[in-house]
Structures are given as C-alpha cells and as structure tokens.
Design a protein that fits this description.
Radius of gyration: 19 Å
Number of helices: 8
Structural class: mainly alpha
Shape: flat
Strand content: under 5%
Number of strands: 0
Distance between the termini: 27 Å
Largest sheet: none
Helix content: over 70%
Number of domains: 2
Length: 271
Amino acid sequence: MTALTLFIVGTILYGASAYLYVAGWIGRSRKASDWAPRLLGGAVVLYLASTGLRWSVFGFPFLTLREVLSVYAWVLAVLYLLIEVRSGHTIIGVMVVPVGSLMILVSSLLPGTQQPLLPLLKSPWLMAHTGVLLAAYAAFTVAFAAALAYLLQDWSLRRRRLAWRLPPLPVMDQLSRLLVGIGVVLMVAAILTGSAWARRAWGRAWVWQPKQVLALVTVAIFGAYLLVRHASSWSVRRASWLIVVGFVAILTTFIGADLLAPTSLHSFLVR
C-alpha cells in the first residue's frame, strides 16, 4: 500500500473513532465505547506506517502545515490512548478525538510537498525540535480537555446537580496538572533544541520570530498555572481558566503565527 492510501484509510478510521466516542457518550452505548479506541488504535498504526513510507522516500516528514497537522493528530491520539488505558475515562476522548479528526481533515485539504529535503533541514536538532514541540502541543491539548471537563463538572455541582457522566473533580484536576507539567518541560526542550538548530542554520540562537515569541508566552501562561496551583490560594476553578487561556495561545502559536507572518523563517506555509 502507498503512503497516501494508508493516510486515507487512517483518516477514515480516525473520523469513525471520533463519531463512536461521541455517540457512545451521548447514547450510552457500550459497544460504541468499546470500538472507539480500537479504531483509533488502527488509525495510529496506519499513520505511523504512512509517515514511515513518506520518510523513507523524502526524508524528515514535518515540512508543511499539512504534514505537521497530521503528525500532531497522530501524537494526540497516542497520548490520549495511553491516558484512557490508565484512567478508564472516555470523556476526554469525546473532546480530544474529534479535535484530532478535524486536524486530519483540514490537513487532507492542504497542499503537500513531494520534494526531498534541503541539506539544511536534515539536522537532527530540527527533527528533535519539531517532534518534541508537537508532543508538547498534544499534552497541552489533552490538559485543556481535562480542564474543560473540570469546569463543566464544577459548574454543575455548584448548581446542585451532577454533570452527566463526567469524572470526579480530583481526577480531572490531577490529570490537568500532570499534563501541563509534561507540556511545559517538552515546550522548554523544544525551545532549546530549536535554538541549537537556529544557531547552526542562521548563525544566531534566537531571532525573535513570531512563533518564538508566542512560544515564550505559552510557556509563561502554563508556568503561571503551575505556580498558582502549588504556591497560591487560587481555587482550582480559577486556575483551570489559565489552561483555557493557554490553549488559545497554543492555537495562536501553532497556526496563527503562520497566518500573521506567512514569510517568517518558522512558517510552515513557506515552500
């Protein structure tokens, strides 16, 4: 099978999994809930095979926005499946898997590249930077889903009713803190590896590109969340809103920077 065929089949499985997660939660269908992670796991395997074929022919496969969105969706699926296996709660999948499916759909509509990499782009620092950065984005995305579930449950409890099939508040709070902590570490590692590559590629470790500045803002927001959760009297509810703000910063960093500065050195829109 070709890389494109694997990608298409994986996209179909990803979309079907998103549908089953939502349908299983709304319709309380045990069968749908059982099949959703299986289809998502199949999509992960197919995307891995597709990326491997793409890599073997053209080199490192994270060049364009199309490729970055699809790999982000793959990393997001892997992280979520690990969390579901550990916690057993599928409500996060109801929020996360449709997001990944949407990213895959958007990526499939964007033009791709079929050209071998330039020698400058074959640096292991660039590979490490991109991979770690996408992992950080995935961790922050799942943290946002957990924070959103917390806020919904908290809103319901304050009105003396229990939100339908949402996990307990401590579970969502613990998951949010864990994932934000992981995301911050990965984001800092991405900045450091990116700076190492920038020094080799551009002669300077830091050139104040929009994506670099927004990355620092993102780290500051999520770092502030960790600070107020461990060293202040802020309520969990109030702190959770920082994760929501941080997720908006992630979207701006991930996609918005390319739209605001399409000719920047960091833009995935540059061919």
